[in-house]
Design a protein that fits this description.
Layout lengths: L1 H22 L12 E10 L2 E5 L4 E8 L13 E5 L2 E6 L4 E6 L4 E5 L12 E7 L2 E6 L4 E6 L4 E6 L7 E5 L2 E5 L10 E6 L6 E7 L2 H4 L9 E4 L2 E4 L6 E6 L2 E10 L6 H4 L6 H11 L2 E9 L3 E8 L2 E8 L5 E8 L8 E7 L2 E6 L1 H12 L11 H9 L7 E7 L7
Parallel strand pairs: 1-19, 2-23
Antiparallel strand pairs: 3-26, 4-5, 5-6, 6-7, 8-9, 9-10, 10-11, 12-13, 13-14, 14-15, 16-17, 17-18, 18-19, 20-21, 21-22, 22-23, 24-25, 25-26
Amino acid sequence: MNDLIYYFQRASILLFGFSMGIFSCKESDNNEIILKDTEFKVISLNPENEVDFKNIGKNIEYIVLSTASDYLISEIDKIEVNNQLIFILSKAQKSIFIFDMSGNFLDKIADFGEGPGKYTGISDFFIFKESLYLLTNPSRYIYEYNLDGDLLKIISTNGNYLEEFRISDEGWVSHLKDAYDDENKFNVVLWDSLFADRKEEFLFLDTDRRNNSLRVDNYISENKEGVFLFQNFSNLIYKFQDTLFLAAFEVLLNDQSIPLEYMKRFKNDSQAALDVAMKENLFTGFKKIIATDKLLFLQAQQGSNIINCFISFDSNKHFAFRNLKSEIEFSLVGDIIGVSGQKFVMIVSENVLSKLKELDLEGKINKVNLKNEKIHNVIDLYEKDGNPVLVFFDLDISSMQN
């Protein structure tokens, strides 16, 4: 009888350990088990060399941001739109600029400096309900502002390392990017509201994934379904919903995954591995993720090429391209950097704007060969050394290819 009890106890312990390995995803090895979403899809993208913006962009709006010396934006790292306000992060200027939907400058958050209520840099920010949450750099504090830019509260992270972050009913969700020490062995962590306890940890951060010399713009985005994110050297897109962490998509490029043996080349010599990636045109992972409620936008790195990808949440429709072209008589194109409701936000290329302005000054553009009145207004308002022009557009899902 005692032997029977002993074996029953041993079996219970083993079963419990197996269950915890599946559901907590806290096994600190490279064989971590991540459950798949019930809507999990394998998407194989075959990028077209060039896509014409006029075939996909619909309901286009152009916003020329007003310009003055005290609010000239040197570089845009992130855009969030809420309550008819545009919030623009410039990490170099350690500021968040606030504009209305007509492009008028309203205010900026620029509390950098020394002393109480000051920060030395910004890692990330997002808007939740009626508050703007700013993560300082180093990530010691979260500053909560109202949407007018007034400081409401300072929240300590208790010395925890964060990079990109969100808030949920369960606490703070953070992507740690490439942090790695005895405490930060996972690069997705769910903290409680006070940063006193790590409630969940996901995605073991092995050294092969850390030494990535390729620049990544952002790892994390959010829609009504949850938080979507990816890991270095991974072709999986994950979804965090409530306390569940699920694999949502496996993305293939030209039917190819990321070679596991290739990741190991980054371990000792990242520059040599980068050279190999360029030479062999290898799929090395993602650079950017942006989600609306209907569409997921990804930027992938393949060799020296940037691949832009759109995936529908509601259907199996998807497509990818290397270059987005435009006819001069139709629209302006650039880099997708954010969302506004169900619209994507794109920063117009400086080269495109300069060329348009040059042609206009030479008298080569008129209402006959440039039929879009909105572009006339952009040309009239655009300044060579001014703030960017933003394009807000819907994507025509019916034109997406399977």
